[in-house]
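Hi team,

Filling in the usual template for the complex we talked about on Friday. All components are listed, including any nucleic acid strands or ligand strings, so the model treats them as one assembly.

SUBMITTER: L.P.
PURPOSE: interface mapping
COMPONENTS: two
RESIDUES: 362
SEQUENCES:
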Amino acid sequence: MAGTRKTGYVDRLSTQAQPIVLVADDHEDTRMMLRELLTINGFVVIECEDGLKALAEARRTIPDLVLLDGRLPSLDGLDVARALRGCAEGVNVPIVFVSGDDNCTDKAIAAGCNTALLKPVDPLDLLAIVRDLSRPASRSASKRESRAVKDHV
Amino acid sequence: MSEDTADTRPAPTAEGASTRRWAQELGELQNRIRKLKTGVLPPAAVDLLEDALSLSVTLLQELAGAQLLQRRMQADMRRSTASWGYLFDRVPVPCVVTDSAGTIISANRAASLFLNISAKHLVGRLLLHFSDDREKFGTALLSAATDRTRIEQVMTIRPKERAPREMLVVIVPESPEQSGRHLWFLQPMTPTMRSPDVLPVTSEQATAN
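RESULT (copied from the run log):
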């Protein structure tokens, strides 16, 4: 898929599957920084620069977490969250919403996001949240459910 | 790198002031035309004037809408840039931005701590001076610049007045609009990491062989 890229280089000898994070942000430098931050910390990153691609990629790969920027071309972050929650594959995927809008939290939660962060985001806070929401126990359970629903559909 | 967060409100612009002035003048014109309706001009002429005025108002509204959109886009860009700057500065990984020759343009806090030089004094230095593998460094930089691809390379980095360390260096070319600039991430090697050229053969590969 155009505009989508996977990376990952750490802990090559690790036998544990690395959690997959889908980063949707139209600002290339921010995507780059988030990709390296997450990759260095043991995540596999899939990048999308617009909302429609993010939605398609999330449905295709069922990531362990979606990091969603509020302002995205073609489909904004809240619309992506709503659409993801409305489809079988995305029901259980944790969604972290990131926005510069002071009033984003209520809107994000109403749209189905697990949490919302206000820009500028502290990378350590972000990492802690991503680790918490994508931790293996909750991840495997939600992923199993999503995949089961997807297979059933 | 600035730690300030940008004011995200669209800034007042000369275009905005001029649009407001035009709107005011159109409003005054409309009042004058309404006064003319008392019989000075034939009704057809008044209709024509009102049509022209109405068209001007529509054009002005479109112009104001376009200006608002442009200001919002500029505000978004400022917000994104400020957000990136904050992220860059606080990311807990030594990270520097260089030009195409490897001269440091900016460095984050972690890079300053690791290289043992303040971020301000790192600017203008060649990153190459911190590398013990100058040939490897040059090849990686050239490769990243010519292929515009992300490079991973294990290199020995020597911070100022400290022992050299083996690091996994990741070089990421920035977007084409910022052509020539590179982001460098310096990550200490851990026992579980291997350089790309000594990756272990997976069980699938072994079976295939």
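MY TAKE: The beta strands of chain A are 6-7, 20-24, 44-48, 65-69, 95-99, 115-118. Chain A touches chain B through 25 residues (CB under 8 Å).

Thanks, L.
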